[in-house]
Amino acid sequence: MTLLDGKKTSEAILQEIAHEVQAIKANGGKVPHLAAVLVGNDGGSVTYVNNKVLACDRIGFGSSLIRYEDTVTEQELLQKIQELNEDDNVDGFIVQLPLPKHINAEKVIESIDPRKDVDGFHPTNVGRMVAGLNAYLPATPAGILQLLQRYDIQTSGKHCVVIGRSNIVGSPMSILMSKAAYPGNATVTLCHRNTNNLAYHTRQADIIISAVGIPGLVTADMVKDGAVVIDVGTTRVQDASRKSGYRLRGDVDFDAVAPKCSFITPVPGGVGPLTIAMLMQNTLRAAKKEVYG
After folding, report:
1. Same domain, 91 and 149
2. What is the pTM of this model?
Protein backbone atom coordinates (compact mmCIF):
# COMPACT_ATOMS: atom_id res chain seq x y z
CA MET A 1 0.00 0.00 0.00
CA THR A 2 1.29 3.43 -1.01
CA LEU A 3 0.09 6.56 0.77
CA LEU A 4 -0.84 9.34 -1.66
CA ASP A 5 0.83 12.32 0.00
CA GLY A 6 -1.19 15.40 -0.97
CA LYS A 7 0.92 17.68 1.19
CA LYS A 8 4.15 16.65 -0.51
CA THR A 9 2.56 16.86 -3.97
CA SER A 10 1.09 20.31 -3.29
CA GLU A 11 4.48 21.54 -2.07
CA ALA A 12 6.03 20.42 -5.37
CA ILE A 13 3.34 22.23 -7.38
CA LEU A 14 3.68 25.42 -5.31
CA GLN A 15 7.47 25.38 -5.79
CA GLU A 16 7.01 25.05 -9.54
CA ILE A 17 4.63 28.03 -9.54
CA ALA A 18 7.01 30.07 -7.36
CA HIS A 19 9.87 29.48 -9.81
CA GLU A 20 7.66 30.63 -12.67
CA VAL A 21 6.67 33.77 -10.74
CA GLN A 22 10.35 34.54 -10.17
CA ALA A 23 10.93 34.28 -13.92
CA ILE A 24 7.97 36.58 -14.62
CA LYS A 25 9.39 39.16 -12.19
CA ALA A 26 12.88 38.86 -13.69
CA ASN A 27 11.45 39.59 -17.12
CA GLY A 28 9.50 42.61 -15.87
CA GLY A 29 6.12 40.92 -16.22
CA LYS A 30 2.99 41.43 -14.12
CA VAL A 31 2.89 39.41 -10.90
CA PRO A 32 -0.31 37.27 -10.67
CA HIS A 33 -2.92 38.66 -8.26
CA LEU A 34 -5.68 36.66 -6.55
CA ALA A 35 -8.56 38.28 -4.68
CA ALA A 36 -10.81 36.44 -2.23
CA VAL A 37 -14.24 37.57 -1.02
CA LEU A 38 -15.31 36.19 2.35
CA VAL A 39 -18.80 36.70 3.76
CA GLY A 40 -19.42 36.00 7.45
CA ASN A 41 -17.28 34.26 10.05
CA ASP A 42 -17.67 30.53 9.38
CA GLY A 43 -14.61 28.93 11.00
CA GLY A 44 -13.83 26.57 8.15
CA SER A 45 -14.20 29.27 5.50
CA VAL A 46 -12.03 31.75 7.45
CA THR A 47 -9.26 29.17 7.82
CA TYR A 48 -9.47 28.13 4.19
CA VAL A 49 -9.34 31.71 2.86
CA ASN A 50 -6.48 32.62 5.18
CA ASN A 51 -4.54 29.61 3.88
CA LYS A 52 -5.10 30.83 0.33
CA VAL A 53 -3.70 34.26 1.21
CA LEU A 54 -0.69 32.65 2.92
CA ALA A 55 -0.07 30.50 -0.17
CA CYS A 56 -0.11 33.65 -2.34
CA ASP A 57 2.53 35.23 -0.11
CA ARG A 58 4.72 32.11 -0.21
CA ILE A 59 4.84 31.84 -4.00
CA GLY A 60 5.09 35.56 -4.74
CA PHE A 61 1.52 36.33 -5.85
CA GLY A 62 -0.24 39.55 -4.96
CA SER A 63 -3.45 39.01 -2.99
CA SER A 64 -6.47 40.87 -1.64
CA LEU A 65 -8.92 39.73 1.03
CA ILE A 66 -12.31 41.42 0.98
CA ARG A 67 -14.45 40.66 4.04
CA TYR A 68 -18.13 41.31 4.68
CA GLU A 69 -20.41 40.57 7.61
CA ASP A 70 -23.11 37.98 6.90
CA THR A 71 -25.62 40.85 6.83
CA VAL A 72 -24.22 42.15 3.52
CA THR A 73 -26.92 42.52 0.89
CA GLU A 74 -26.87 40.55 -2.33
CA GLN A 75 -26.70 43.82 -4.27
CA GLU A 76 -23.62 45.01 -2.36
CA LEU A 77 -21.87 41.72 -3.06
CA LEU A 78 -22.76 41.78 -6.76
CA GLN A 79 -21.46 45.35 -6.98
CA LYS A 80 -18.09 44.27 -5.51
CA ILE A 81 -17.92 41.37 -7.98
CA GLN A 82 -18.46 43.81 -10.84
CA GLU A 83 -15.62 45.98 -9.52
CA LEU A 84 -13.32 42.95 -9.40
CA ASN A 85 -14.38 41.96 -12.93
CA GLU A 86 -13.25 45.39 -14.14
CA ASP A 87 -10.04 45.64 -12.05
CA ASP A 88 -7.10 44.99 -14.40
CA ASN A 89 -4.80 44.35 -11.44
CA VAL A 90 -6.86 41.31 -10.34
CA ASP A 91 -6.19 38.27 -12.53
CA GLY A 92 -8.57 35.93 -10.73
CA PHE A 93 -10.88 35.94 -7.74
CA ILE A 94 -13.05 33.65 -5.69
CA VAL A 95 -16.17 34.15 -3.61
CA GLN A 96 -15.90 31.69 -0.74
CA LEU A 97 -18.86 29.34 -0.38
CA PRO A 98 -21.19 28.73 1.37
CA LEU A 99 -22.94 32.10 1.37
CA PRO A 100 -25.71 33.26 3.74
CA LYS A 101 -29.17 32.01 2.81
CA HIS A 102 -30.42 35.46 1.72
CA ILE A 103 -27.80 35.54 -1.07
CA ASN A 104 -28.39 33.52 -4.25
CA ALA A 105 -25.12 31.63 -4.76
CA GLU A 106 -25.97 30.77 -8.38
CA LYS A 107 -26.50 34.43 -9.21
CA VAL A 108 -23.18 35.29 -7.57
CA ILE A 109 -21.28 32.60 -9.49
CA GLU A 110 -22.86 33.63 -12.79
CA SER A 111 -21.88 37.28 -12.19
CA ILE A 112 -18.15 36.43 -12.10
CA ASP A 113 -16.27 37.08 -15.35
CA PRO A 114 -15.40 33.57 -16.69
CA ARG A 115 -11.88 34.84 -17.48
CA LYS A 116 -11.35 35.49 -13.75
CA ASP A 117 -13.31 32.48 -12.47
CA VAL A 118 -10.34 30.61 -10.98
CA ASP A 119 -12.67 28.37 -8.94
CA GLY A 120 -13.97 26.97 -12.25
CA PHE A 121 -17.61 27.20 -11.16
CA HIS A 122 -19.03 29.55 -13.83
CA PRO A 123 -21.32 27.81 -16.36
CA THR A 124 -19.01 28.90 -19.17
CA ASN A 125 -16.03 27.11 -17.63
CA VAL A 126 -18.17 24.10 -16.72
CA GLY A 127 -19.41 23.94 -20.32
CA ARG A 128 -15.89 24.20 -21.71
CA MET A 129 -14.76 21.41 -19.39
CA VAL A 130 -17.63 19.14 -20.53
CA ALA A 131 -16.84 19.88 -24.17
CA GLY A 132 -13.17 19.06 -23.63
CA LEU A 133 -12.04 22.63 -24.30
CA ASN A 134 -9.39 24.56 -22.39
CA ALA A 135 -10.98 25.73 -19.12
CA TYR A 136 -10.35 26.52 -15.49
CA LEU A 137 -11.04 23.22 -13.74
CA PRO A 138 -12.52 23.15 -10.22
CA ALA A 139 -9.55 22.98 -7.86
CA THR A 140 -10.33 19.74 -6.01
CA PRO A 141 -10.89 17.56 -9.12
CA ALA A 142 -7.83 19.17 -10.74
CA GLY A 143 -5.80 18.28 -7.63
CA ILE A 144 -6.96 14.66 -7.79
CA LEU A 145 -5.85 14.46 -11.43
CA GLN A 146 -2.43 15.77 -10.38
CA LEU A 147 -2.20 13.15 -7.64
CA LEU A 148 -3.04 10.33 -10.06
CA GLN A 149 -0.56 11.63 -12.61
CA ARG A 150 2.36 12.27 -10.27
CA TYR A 151 2.04 8.83 -8.69
CA ASP A 152 1.81 7.29 -12.19
CA ILE A 153 -1.51 5.57 -11.43
CA GLN A 154 -2.98 3.93 -14.51
CA THR A 155 -6.53 5.04 -15.26
CA SER A 156 -7.14 4.05 -18.89
CA GLY A 157 -9.77 1.33 -19.15
CA LYS A 158 -10.18 1.17 -15.38
CA HIS A 159 -13.55 1.23 -13.62
CA CYS A 160 -13.81 4.41 -11.53
CA VAL A 161 -16.64 4.84 -9.02
CA VAL A 162 -17.24 8.43 -7.90
CA ILE A 163 -19.40 8.83 -4.79
CA GLY A 164 -21.00 12.28 -4.61
CA ARG A 165 -22.51 14.48 -7.32
CA SER A 166 -21.77 18.04 -6.19
CA ASN A 167 -20.89 20.67 -8.79
CA ILE A 168 -17.66 21.29 -6.87
CA VAL A 169 -16.21 17.75 -6.81
CA GLY A 170 -18.31 14.73 -7.77
CA SER A 171 -19.90 15.78 -11.06
CA PRO A 172 -16.79 17.38 -12.59
CA MET A 173 -14.66 14.48 -11.34
CA SER A 174 -16.87 11.95 -13.11
CA ILE A 175 -16.64 13.93 -16.36
CA LEU A 176 -12.87 14.39 -16.19
CA MET A 177 -12.21 10.72 -15.44
CA SER A 178 -14.22 9.71 -18.52
CA LYS A 179 -12.37 12.04 -20.92
CA ALA A 180 -9.99 10.56 -23.50
CA ALA A 181 -6.92 11.85 -21.67
CA TYR A 182 -4.49 10.91 -18.92
CA PRO A 183 -5.52 10.81 -16.15
CA GLY A 184 -8.89 9.69 -17.47
CA ASN A 185 -10.13 7.33 -20.19
CA ALA A 186 -11.86 5.36 -17.44
CA THR A 187 -15.31 3.80 -17.32
CA VAL A 188 -17.12 5.88 -14.71
CA THR A 189 -20.03 5.09 -12.40
CA LEU A 190 -21.42 8.11 -10.51
CA CYS A 191 -23.05 7.20 -7.19
CA HIS A 192 -24.55 9.34 -4.41
CA ARG A 193 -26.43 9.25 -1.10
CA ASN A 194 -29.50 7.68 -2.70
CA THR A 195 -27.73 4.97 -4.70
CA ASN A 196 -29.19 1.56 -3.91
CA ASN A 197 -26.63 -1.03 -2.80
CA LEU A 198 -23.61 1.27 -3.00
CA ALA A 199 -21.30 -1.59 -2.05
CA TYR A 200 -22.27 -3.49 -5.24
CA HIS A 201 -20.76 -0.69 -7.30
CA THR A 202 -17.69 0.02 -5.16
CA ARG A 203 -16.65 -3.66 -5.03
CA GLN A 204 -16.22 -3.55 -8.81
CA ALA A 205 -14.15 -0.37 -8.77
CA ASP A 206 -10.46 -0.16 -9.61
CA ILE A 207 -10.57 3.47 -8.43
CA ILE A 208 -12.92 4.88 -5.78
CA ILE A 209 -13.23 8.65 -5.31
CA SER A 210 -15.53 9.54 -2.40
CA ALA A 211 -16.76 13.10 -1.83
CA VAL A 212 -19.98 13.02 0.19
CA GLY A 213 -18.94 14.07 3.70
CA ILE A 214 -20.25 10.98 5.50
CA PRO A 215 -17.55 9.82 7.95
CA GLY A 216 -16.64 6.15 7.59
CA LEU A 217 -19.07 5.53 4.71
CA VAL A 218 -16.64 3.35 2.75
CA THR A 219 -15.80 0.24 4.74
CA ALA A 220 -13.35 -2.62 4.05
CA ASP A 221 -16.04 -4.96 2.71
CA MET A 222 -16.87 -2.36 0.01
CA VAL A 223 -13.37 -2.30 -1.49
CA LYS A 224 -11.70 -4.94 -3.64
CA ASP A 225 -8.04 -5.87 -3.17
CA GLY A 226 -5.63 -3.57 -4.99
CA ALA A 227 -8.07 -0.69 -5.44
CA VAL A 228 -7.00 2.97 -5.52
CA VAL A 229 -9.01 4.95 -2.95
CA ILE A 230 -9.16 8.74 -2.92
CA ASP A 231 -10.98 10.27 0.04
CA VAL A 232 -12.21 13.85 -0.43
CA GLY A 233 -14.39 13.83 2.70
CA THR A 234 -13.31 16.08 5.58
CA THR A 235 -15.88 16.12 8.36
CA ARG A 236 -15.28 17.46 11.88
CA VAL A 237 -16.16 14.85 14.50
CA GLN A 238 -15.98 15.33 18.25
CA ASP A 239 -12.80 14.11 19.93
CA ALA A 240 -12.34 15.00 23.61
CA SER A 241 -8.70 13.89 23.47
CA ARG A 242 -7.83 16.73 21.08
CA LYS A 243 -7.15 20.28 22.24
CA SER A 244 -9.53 21.59 19.58
CA GLY A 245 -12.25 19.18 20.74
CA TYR A 246 -12.59 17.65 17.28
CA ARG A 247 -10.68 15.81 14.57
CA LEU A 248 -11.14 15.46 10.83
CA ARG A 249 -12.55 12.22 9.47
CA GLY A 250 -12.82 11.16 5.87
CA ASP A 251 -15.52 9.23 4.03
CA VAL A 252 -13.30 6.14 4.19
CA ASP A 253 -12.69 3.92 7.22
CA PHE A 254 -8.96 4.36 6.69
CA ASP A 255 -7.54 1.86 9.19
CA ALA A 256 -9.68 -0.98 7.86
CA VAL A 257 -9.55 -0.07 4.15
CA ALA A 258 -5.86 0.88 3.75
CA PRO A 259 -4.44 -2.69 3.96
CA LYS A 260 -6.54 -3.68 0.93
CA CYS A 261 -5.44 -0.79 -1.28
CA SER A 262 -2.64 -0.27 -3.76
CA PHE A 263 -2.90 3.51 -3.16
CA ILE A 264 -4.93 5.55 -0.66
CA THR A 265 -5.12 9.17 0.50
CA PRO A 266 -5.03 10.06 4.20
CA VAL A 267 -7.36 12.58 5.88
CA PRO A 268 -6.03 15.12 6.59
CA GLY A 269 -3.01 15.49 4.30
CA GLY A 270 -4.46 13.95 1.16
CA VAL A 271 -6.63 15.90 -1.26
CA GLY A 272 -7.05 19.02 0.90
CA PRO A 273 -3.64 20.65 0.37
CA LEU A 274 -3.93 20.13 -3.40
CA THR A 275 -7.08 22.22 -3.60
CA ILE A 276 -5.18 25.39 -2.69
CA ALA A 277 -2.25 24.48 -4.96
CA MET A 278 -4.56 24.09 -7.94
CA LEU A 279 -6.30 27.38 -7.18
CA MET A 280 -2.86 29.00 -7.40
CA GLN A 281 -2.26 27.14 -10.68
CA ASN A 282 -5.53 28.51 -12.09
CA THR A 283 -4.57 32.03 -11.02
CA LEU A 284 -1.22 31.72 -12.77
CA ARG A 285 -3.00 30.53 -15.90
CA ALA A 286 -5.38 33.48 -15.65
CA ALA A 287 -2.46 35.91 -15.37
CA LYS A 288 -0.88 34.32 -18.45
CA LYS A 289 -4.27 34.39 -20.24
CA GLU A 290 -3.86 30.72 -21.15
CA VAL A 291 -7.56 29.90 -21.31
CA TYR A 292 -9.27 32.87 -22.95
CA GLY A 293 -6.32 34.69 -24.54
Report:
1. no
2. 0.95
